[in-house]
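The following block was generated as part of the benchmark described in Methods. Ligand: MD3.
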Amino acid sequence: MTLELFDETSAEPSHEAITLGAVILRGFARECAAELLRLVAQITDDAPWRHMRTPSGHRMSVAMTNCGTYGWLSDERGYRYADHDPISGRPWPPMPKGLFELADAAATAAGFAGFAPDACLINRYVPGAKVSLHQDLDERDTQAPIVSISLGIPAVFRFGGSTRKGPTRAFRLIHGDIAVWGGPARHAYHGVDPIPEAQHALTGGVRINLTLRRAR
Ligand code: MD3
Ligand code: FE
């Protein structure tokens, strides 16, 4: 395992290549982070945080919601995208234009011009919450990348290969980082280690991650 070390106070945005098709754009969302958190608060007024259940019945430690035309769901029927929030019966809140444009700009900076996300899964982590190693396989468009925006307290993100076993590399994702995952990295196994206790001026003791996707 390698833990990528860097200076958290570094002001300079930078590109950090992970593997072919994957890059971390350090600080790409730092300046608009407060605005993004306001947008998340508006979204969760309409489509509140909820802990979904895995198809096997386990409650996920991460709370989730969505915005965009499609939202990702997990329940006893499996994993899928749906155009309505099953709690309210209404369409998911629309994807804010600024969020769409930020994701498109990040994708372009990573070499994926023309990204047009139609779904945004929003994850909320409290200390101890985690996401086990998994692949993102529910999106129909496998050419499009996934753009991930990290806000609030840090996480250790784990990146593996095309099988669940085998080595993983760990990367620390902090407030304002954007990661783009496409091409050969698109179907790699990945996860998030249990989040350590921390405080952030804008989010308190939580981490928010937004993943923008082309679902259909
Ligand atoms: C690498 N979220 O929502 S974001 C997920 O931090 C998810 O909340 C994590 O995994 C989080 O599915 C990780 C980074 C990420 C997202 C999708 C990927 C990395 C990826 C898809 C393929 C490869
Ligand atoms: Fe994922």
